[in-house]
Amino acid sequence: MTPECATSTSTKRVAFQTLGCKLNQHETESIAADFRHAGYTIVPFGEAADAYIINTCTVTAKADRKSRNTVNRALRSREGATVASQIAPGIDLHGLPASVVVVTGCFVEASPDLYRDVPGLYLLDNRRKSAALEIVDAHLSGELVVPERHAPAPFNFDTPSPVFRTRGTVKIQDGCNTGCSYCIIPVVRGRALSRPAAAVCEAVRRNIDRGYREIVLTGINMSRYRDADTDFPALLRQLLELPGDFRLRLSSLEPELLTEPLLEMVHHPRFMPHLHLCLQSGSDRILSRMNRGYTRAEFTQALKAIRTVVPDFHFTTDIIVGFPGETEADFQESVDAVKELEFGHVHTFPYSLRSHTRAAKMDGHLPEKLKSERAHVMRELAAAEKLRYRRSLLGQQEELLIERVGPLGTASGYGRRYVPITVAANETKLKVNGLYTVVLSELDQTDEPVFHGSLV
Question: Looking at the domain assignment, is residue 161 inside a domain?
Answer without folding.
Answer: no
